C-alpha cells in the first residue's frame, strides 16, 4: 500500500483513473486505545464495518483481540489471520454449514440467537455441545439512531423469558443477552432504556445471566450530526449495568464498528463533469458512497487543489459513475463554487461502511488504497500523534 503525507499530495502527481481510498491506521489506533482505556468491559470489533487488513491489523496491534463476526467468511478471515482471537458469531440467523464450520474448524463457541429454532440448529450442528456461550438477541427501540436496526432481528420483551430459560438449559457455559440500539445512536440514554427492558425480561425468566452485550451504535461525527462526548455513552452504560440483575461477576461486552473506524477512512473522487450544482464523480452509490446515497447522509467534503480556491462555498449534489439513477447523493455537499471537471474531492469519515459496501456494478469500482498520515476531520477521541512518513507499506497477515 503506497503512502502519502496527506491526500493533497495526489494533486502533485497523476491521480489513478478510479477513486482512491485513504487509509489512516493511526486513527484506528486512537479509537481502539480510547475504548480499551475507557470502556469497562470487553471490546469486540464488528468486522462488517470494515474488514480491510490494515484495519484489522491496527486493531490487533492496539490490543483489540475480540471480534464480532456475522458470516462464515468473516469467521475464517479472523481465525486464519489471528490465531487465538476471541470470535463471537453474533448474526442471529446462520446457515447450518456456517455453524458447523465455525464450531468444528475454527473453535467458535459463542453464538447469538433470537429464536428457539436457531438454538436447535446450533445444538444439532455442534452435536449437542455443552461448552457453548449462547447470547439471546433482543429487539429494542431504535429511537435516537440515524439508522434503526430493530425490525429484522431480536425477541420482544414478552417472548424473551421463554427463550432465556431454554438457552440456560442448553448450555453449561455462559448465557448472555444482547441488543443493538441502532447505528449512529445520538442519545446515550437509549442504552439505559434498552438495558432496563432487557433486565425486566431477565427477572421474569428467573435465570442467571453471565454476559450483557450492549452491541454497537456508538457514533461518529458527520456534518449535521454532532453526538455527545463518547464518555457520556460509557458512563450511562456503566451505571445501567450496575443496576441489572445479573451474575455478580457478569461480563460487559460492546461491539463497536463505526466508532472504531469511521474517522480512519476517506475517498478521493474526481469530477468528471459539472452541470450547474450537480457534480458527476468517478465514485458513488455502488462504490464507497453507499451511505451518502442510499441513506442520504452528509459527509465532510473538501476540494483538493495545490492552490487553495478563494471562491465562496456553494451546495452541490453528487452523482456517481454508473448509469443507474439511484447513483445520486443529494447532500448538500459544501464546496467552492469554482469547482469543475478534473478537480479532486476528498469525502471524509468513510472508514465505516465505505469500502465494505463497494461493488463492481456497471464495471466501475476499481479502487486504489493509499495510507495517509494526516487527521483532517473532527474526532471523537481528540488529536492523535502523527506517525512518521512512510513511502511504501505492504500489509501482510499477522501471527498471534
What are the main properties of this structure?
elongated, TIM Barrel, 10 helices, 2 domains, alpha/beta, Lyase, Ornithine Decarboxylase, Chain A, domain 1, single chain, 400 residues
Task: Describe the protein's architecture and organization.
The protein has two domains: 2-22 and 263-372, Lyase, Ornithine Decarboxylase, Chain A, domain 1 (Beta Barrel); 25-261, Alpha-Beta Barrel (TIM Barrel). It contains ten helices and 19 strands. The protein has helices at residues 25-38, 53-61, 72-81, 96-104, 116-125, 160-170, 189-205, 230-242, 258-261, 290-294; strands at 2-4, 20-23, 42-46, 66-69, 86-89, 110-113, 133-137, 145-147, 175-178, 183-185, 211-213, 251-254, 265-275, 278-281, 301-304, 313-319, 328-336, 344-347, 368-372. Strands 1, 2, 13, 14, 15, 16, 17, 18 and 19 form a nine-stranded mixed beta sheet that branches. The protein has an eight-stranded parallel β-barrel with strand order 3-4-5-6-7-9-11-12. It is elongated.
Amino acid at each position: 500500500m503506497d503512502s502519502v503525507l496527506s491526500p493533497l499530495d495526489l494533486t502533485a502527481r497523476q491521480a489513478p483513473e478510479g477513486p482512491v481510498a485513504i487509509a489512516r491506521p493511526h486513527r484506528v489506533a486512537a479509537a481502539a486505545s480510547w475504548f480499551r482505556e475507557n470502556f469497562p468491559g470487553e471490546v469486540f470489533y464488528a468486522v462488517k464495518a470494515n474488514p480491510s487488513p490494515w484495519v484489522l491489523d491496527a486493531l490487533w496491534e492496539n490490543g483489540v483481540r475480540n471480534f464480532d463476526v456475522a458470516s462464515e467468511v468473516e469467521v475464517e478471515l479472523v481465525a486464519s489471520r489471528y490465531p487465538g482471537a476471541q470470535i463471537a458469531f453474533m448474526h442471529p440467523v446462520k446457515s447450518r454449514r456456517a455453524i458447523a464450520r465455525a464450531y468444528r474448524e475454527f473453535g467458535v463457541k459463542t453464538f447469538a440467537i433470537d429464536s428457539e429454532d436457531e438454538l436447535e440448529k446450533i445444538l444439532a450442528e455442534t452435536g449437542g455441545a455443552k461448552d457453548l456461550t449462547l447470547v439471546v438477541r433482543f429487539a429494542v427501540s431504535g429511537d435516537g439512531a440515524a439508522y434503526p436496526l430493530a425490525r429484522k432481528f431480536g425477541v420482544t420483551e414478552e417472548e424473551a423469558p421463554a427463550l432465556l430459560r431454554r438457552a440456560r438449559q442448553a448450555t453449561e457455559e455462559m448465557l448472555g443477552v444482547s441488543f443493538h440500539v441502532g447505528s449512529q445512536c445520538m442519545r446515550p440514554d437509549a442504552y439505559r432504556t434498552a438495558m432496563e427492558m432487557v433486565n425486566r425480561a431477565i427477572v421474569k425468566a428467573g435465570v442467571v445471566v453471565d454476559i450483557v452485550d450492549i452491541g454497537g451504535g456508538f457514533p461518529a461525527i458527520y456534518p449535521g450530526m454532532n453526538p455527545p462526548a463518547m464518555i457520556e455513552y460509557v458512563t450511562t452504560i456503566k451505571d445501567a449495568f450496575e443496576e441489572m440483575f445479573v451474575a455478580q461477576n457478569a461480563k460487559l461486552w460492546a461491539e463497536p464498528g463505526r466508532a472504531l473506524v469511521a474517522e480512519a477512512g476517506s475517498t478521493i473522487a474526481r469530477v468528471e463533469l459539472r452541470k450547474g450544482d450537480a457534480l458527476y464523480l468517478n465514485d458513488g452509490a455502488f462504490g464507497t458512497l453507499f451511505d451518502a446515497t442510499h441513506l442520504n447522509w452528509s459527509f465532510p467534503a473538501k476540494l483538493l487543489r495545490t492552490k487553495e480556491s478563494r471562491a465562496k462555498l456553494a451546495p452541490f449534489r453528487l452523482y456517481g459513475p454508473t448509469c443507474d439513477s439511484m447513483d445520486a447523493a443529494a447532500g448538500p455537499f459544501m464546496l467552492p463554487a469554482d469547482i469543475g471537471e478534473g478537480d479532486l474531492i476528498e469525502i471524509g469519515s468513510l472508514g465505516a461502511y465505505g469500502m465494505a459496501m463497494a461493488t463492481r456494478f456497471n464495471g466501475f469500482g476499481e479502487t486504489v488504497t493509499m495510507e495517509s498520515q494526516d487527521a483532517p476531520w473532527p474526532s471523537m477521541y481528540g488529536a492523535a500523534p502523527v506517525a512518521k512518513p512512510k513511502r511504501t507499506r505492504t500489509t501482510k497477515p499477522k501471527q498471534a
